């Protein structure tokens, strides 16, 4: 089978300098895109251009260069707003990533509404970034963390969420797409169930934004978060979307430069309104500009074409892997493809498999993927996760299949001594 015309694959791959980097072994098949994506030249150029033509601090300089930097930063906010179809620019907060956004919400929004005897609800398939902040919140406030079971690995059903919600539920936090299996949750329906009971919802969109069209107004979530580095943008960049009325009432997450109207030693502090109150200090302006470039670049590819490319790769991989002895595809990634296929190999630790693939020039993620509680629910020690991007090819999948036919127990731990299994 050859790659379809969903994307002009040769020209897309040519936009990624990383793919042309010489190595001392087989050509690298980079299939760890759920962890981080490579960056197209358009994004790298945006970083360089900012630092060479506009590098200055924003908002507080009465000179042309500072005004230029401020304009680019706020233009980036507008790009993100349009990409998510948010209603207002000031509903977009720049963060360091999904983890940063979740901790911000736990320490500001949730800390004001969760108290002793209350509940916070998560699903059983959450990444630690959308689990540990809420667990710590509950421990601090005497609340209970309740979990919607996810032992099947299939999408969370609205009725399953409804069964866990109670009269003391104050918040629901759930993932749009599982980072382990690629399971796509029906977030709009889940949000509706929570809202019918007056419960606000936080959605982790880190794995969704690179693969699915995301319309926050259609989804209806109160907050939606994602990381730039998973969607062809820079490391250390990310976004928190929040409804304007909710963000307007949030206290500062951190305090310092840019968050206040003025400070006197013996007078109350008056904080500014809008995103600046939640973006203390000098933000990573270049990262925001480059993230906006990444989203613009992805939009130009066409999200329907990206979705079709994902579907073709996932289904091709599932079909090919079903013909490999001892290999089991976990979950049902082909039902609603989102760029992830997780496998288990009977009798082998995921680290053995991942190390073997590495020796064949194939980069995948092995282990629990920062979601050990979910792996426990699935009854697995871990998985080998194959995850795709717009530059991924069926030829790379063929290399995975060929390498899996030759993997044997123990060779990775012998090759890399001293590594401790979970």
Summarize the structure in words.
There is one protein chain. It is built from 15 helices and 15 strands. The protein has helices spanning 9-14, 41-53, 64-84, 98-113, 132-141, 158-164, 187-196, 216-219, 244-247, 285-301, 303-321, 350-359, 372-378, 394-404, 411-415, and strands spanning 29-30, 92-95, 119-123, 144-148, 169-175, 201-204, 223-227, 238-242, 260-262, 270-271, 327-330, 340-345, 362-363, 365-367, 383-387. Helix 7 links the parallel strand 5 and strand 6 (201-204). Residues 418-422 have low confidence and may be disordered.
Secondary-structure element series: HEHHEHEHEHEHEHEEHEEHHEEHEEHEHH
Task: Calculate the terminal CA-CA distance, rounded to whole Å.
Answer: 37 Å
User: What percent strand?
Assistant: 5-15%
Fraction of residues in helices? 25-40%
Trace the largest sheet across and list its strands.
2-8-7-6-5-3-4
* Structural class by sheet pairing and helices: alpha/beta
Shape: globular
What are the key terms here?
single chain, 422 residues, alpha/beta, 4-stranded antiparallel beta sheet, globular, 7-stranded mixed beta sheet
